[in-house]
Amino acid sequence: AKSTVGAYWITYSFSNSDGCTDTTGAAITIHALPTATIAYGTYCARDSAEVTLTGATGGSYTSTSGLVINKTSGTVDLVKSGVGSYWITYSFSNSDGCTDTTGASITIHALPTATIAYGTYCARDSAEVTLTGATGGQYTSTSGLVINKTSGTVDLAKSGVGSYWITYSFSNSDGCTDTTGAAITIHALPTASIAYGTYCARDSAEVTLTGATGGQYTSTSGLVINKTSGTVDLAKSGVGSYWITYSFSNSDGCTDTTGAAITIHALPTATIAYGTYCARDSAEVTLTGATGGSYTSTSGLVINKTSGTVDLAKSGVGSYWITYSFSNSDGCTDTTGASITIHALPTATIAYGTYCARDSAEVTLTGATGGQYTSTSGLVINKTSGTVDLAKSGVGSYWITYSFSNSDGCTDTTGAAITIHALPTATIAYGTYCARDSAEVTLTGATGGQYTSTSGLVINKTSGTVDLAKSGVGSYWITYSFS
Question: Among residues 279, 312, 343, which one ends one of the domains?
Answer without folding.
Answer: 343
